[in-house]
Amino acid sequence: MKIFGIDLGTTYSCIAFVNEYGAAEVVPNAESQTTTPSVVAFEEGGTVSVGDAAKETLNTDPDNVCSTIKRQMGKRDFTFYAFDQEYTPEAISAIILKKIAKDAGEALGEEVKDVVITCPAYFGLEEREATKKAGIAAGLNVLAILNEPTAAAISYGIKTEEPQTVMVYDLGGGTFDVTIIKVENNSIRVVATGGDHMMGGKDWDEKISSYVIEQSCQANGESVDSVYADNELMGDLELKSEKAKKQLSQKDSVKVKFNGETVEISRSQFDQFTSDLLESTITKTHETMLEAEKKGVDHYDKILLVGGSTRMPQVDARLKQEFPNIPVEFCDPDQSVAKGAAMYGLNMAAFAEFSEKDNNGDGPTITKEEQEELRRNVFFGTGSQAKPITIKNVISQCIAVKLICEDNKEHIVNQIFKNTEIPCEHVLHAGTHMANQTTVAIEIFENASTDEYVDEDLCKALVDGELGPLPSGLPAGAPIDVVFKIDENGLLSIDAEHKPSGAVKHLEVNLQNALSQEELQEEIAKVNALHI
Ligand code: ADP
Ligand code: MG
Question: From the CA of 334, how far away is ligand 2's center (Å)?
């Protein structure tokens, strides 16, 4: 029996397991590639293709191709429409997971069942829930949803004899994530996360596309606008630009044939017209370091480069220039996340009684005997010396409450700031606004601001509740406590209380965007009806 780690990436996905020698190993897909494009193409008659085949249809049938679905995870207002059927982000992700699991299962001659799926550290509760549901919809038993940078660190083999502070710089295809983690005493803790969720290798591709369009139009006199309006031509260029970019990681110049013209691009030109993108990753890196500094991080033992786009030579060079005193190391750019997830999954299964409660996992489908067997291959120590890895997390969003402040106006005031270590508890001592108040409105919000007072437009409502009835005849300023509790999985619960009368209201955050059980069943039926 094996436990698998799946890196469900924005642009590429990867699956790995820990082999009998205790080494993490990636399983190639049916096309013999170690990573599979996270692209789904629908065809007439309920057939879908995933991966390279799907990507290639970008230039023939771009409207039925769905890519970068990860950006839509946890959103309710997004569905992909193809051949009279609507698909949620969970369903599209499930299709990708099914293909990856099926291929790996066939390659190994063993069904893929127990998995750990990774997600970015900044993913909020809803996105994590959606990722888990995608796994369930794909017929998988999801042991845990693990942060990608944590997985990369595990895979890098960070040992715990000496405490270390590591920055994981992950430049993928559709996102840029920078995460600062601390490793000590068998525990891996995320200290701060940042980055840009809408930037990645695709933006570098687009810069190449713009350059090629500009140059080719100059040469053949065609209008730039008409090229941009041609979906098939643009789909074709998207593929060519990515290929050209990858070649530029190896060669000093490339030629792109497009729309009857040949456009040559040198590496230094490429570096120049994309330097604003690279610079913005440096700015974001500094912002995240500043957050970590507030939490006591004053030095770094290393910078780990993760994500396919860190293969662009300018990335490594720029980081070394910016941080001359920190060693910059490559961490198996496209495979480390899946491998680390597999190692973690193995660890979880081997120590099921320890780790289940930490990860809200469903528990592996293994027996006690199999567990004993697994303990031989765990990451920290072996046999009876084996120790579980513990993972500590921070919340990725601030939690705020609406209060009437001293200026007599309503304000949304942050109570727990993002990057606070979880589990945590916070008590707000507030009071009633007026005399004879019999109820108190409790409105709780989530936001990514770093300020104490936050604009409502920047907030997402989590709870709209009420404490009451309170005894009659209370004066203004009667004490109301609001207790915020966040558990190790990031689940928030709130108790509002008027202690003297014993009035208590327990409020649960409802994940408004999560699929209900029935909805999930519908998505499963849709996915199962497809021929993948
Ligand atoms: P994600 O996790 O966001 O899906 P990955 O970490 O798998 O992304 O990285 C995918 C990105 O890396 C794509 O934009 C791809 O074009 C880019 N990439 C892969 N190999 C290279 C290379 N040799 N040179 C430059 N970019 C590369
Ligand atoms: Mg990635």
Answer: 7
For ligand 1, whether the C-beta of 379 sits within 6 Å is no
Q: Confirm or reject: Cβ of 10 under 6 Å from ligand 1.
A: yes
Spatial contact of 37 and 45, defined as CB atoms under 8 Å apart: no
State how far the Cα of 111 lies from the Cα of 109, in Å rounded to an integer. 7
Rounded distance, CA 415 to CA 492, Å? 13
> Cβ(274) to ligand 1 under 6 A?
no
| Nearest listed ligand to the Cα of residue 334 | 1
Beta strands 302-306; 328-330: pairing state: parallel
Tokens of 254: 């490339």
Return the structure tokens found at 309. Answer: 């786009």
Which ligand gives the minimal distance to the CA of 333?
1
Residues 6+ away with beta carbon under 8 Å from 425: 483, 484, 485, 486
- Which are the contacts of 317, defined by CB distance < 8 A and separation ≥ 6? none
Classified as helix, coil or strand, 183 is strand
As beta bridge partners, residue 428 has 482
Q: Is 18 exposed, middle or buried (0-12, 13-18, 19+ CB in 10 A)?
A: buried
Instruction: Provide CB contacts within 8 A for 41, sequence distance 6+.
Output: 48, 49, 50, 53, 54, 55, 57, 61, 64, 65, 66
pTM of the full predicted structure?
0.85
For 177-202, the pLDDT digits (tens) are: 999 998 877 778 888 888 998 899 99
Separation of 233 CA from ligand 2 center, angstroms?
28
* Rounded distance from Cα 197 to ligand 1 centre (Å): 15
The residues pairing with 81 across neighbouring beta strands, listed in sequence order, are 86
Q: By percentage, how much of the chain surpasses pLDDT 90?
A: 65
Answer yes or no: are the C-beta atoms of 475 and 498 closer than 8 Å.
Answer: no
Residue 145 alpha carbon to ligand 2 centre in Å: 14
Instruction: Note the pLDDT of residue 376.
Output: 66
Banded model confidence at residue 353, pLDDT cuts 50, 70, 90: low
Lowest mean pLDDT among 307-316, 363-372, 429-438, 476-485: 363-372
The answer, yes or no, to whether residue 355 has pLDDT greater than 70, is: no
| pLDDT (mean) for 320-348 | 92
Residues 516-528 as b or e (16 or more Cβ within 10 Å = b)? eeeebeebbebbe
How far lies 411's CA from each of 276, 445, 456, in Å?
37, 11, 8
Taking alpha carbons only, the member of 128, 44, 137 closest to residue 87 is 137
